[in-house]
Amino acid sequence: MPNFRSECPVRRPITVTVNSHRDHKPNLKIDFFSRCGYCNAHDEWKSTYYEVDHFIPEYILTIKSKTDYSNLVYSCRSCNNAKRKKWPSNDQSVPNINNEGFVDPCEPTYESHFSRRTTGEIDHETDLGKWMYFALKLHKPHHKIVWNLENLNQMITELKKLENNLDDQPEIKAKLLKVYDEYTAYYAQLRAL
């Protein structure tokens, strides 16, 4: 079974004053490895649809400012929209209670709540993970599709390196190149949407 994610994001201690929490997006993109903190999808598919989420929702923030970097998450629009104002404890210092709520994606324990099937679907591994799974709508098919496209792209890139070794197998080389060309064209179309 593949790991849910290969790296745990780490927020740098950024304290610069900004006008809007969205001004932190470039730094969050770096700290989150260009991946959604919640579902781990890479932003190469739709970077304009990546947003800045308040881990603790704005409506209950009293201790931290709305632009506090330590409370922000680089998030795909799907996860950000699904999460919205969900915060079952209604206490900014209590992220989860009775297996309901969230774990900060920068916590190393975050990934223990989820796994990936070899076909790309996200599964929950704990009761709290189950709650987050449904709250973030991690069951939506695009999570599987993006994961598979990312892996296929990586495999095609590796296979492309072998093309020079296929000179004595022209049929296989031609098929490989055709699949690669079709995939890259589709990939470019998807990114342009």
Write a short abstract of this structure.
Helix content is 35%, strand content 10%. It is α+β, with helices and mostly antiparallel strands.
> How many angstroms does the end-to-end distance come to?
31 Å
| SS element count, helices | 5
Could you give a short account of the major beta sheet?
Answer: 2 strands, antiparallel
Spatial order of the strands forming the largest sheet: 1-2
**Rg, please?**
19 Å
Number of strands: 6
What class would the helix/strand composition place it in?
A: alpha+beta
Spans with pLDDT under 50 lasting ≥5 residues? none
Principal-axis shape: elongated
Protein name: TIGR02646 family protein
GO molecular function, one term: nucleic acid binding
Domain HNH nuclease: 27-81
InterPro entries: HNH, HNH_nuc
What features would you highlight for this structure?
193 residues; alpha+beta; two-stranded antiparallel ribbon; 5 helices; 10% strand; TIGR02646 family protein; HNH_nuc
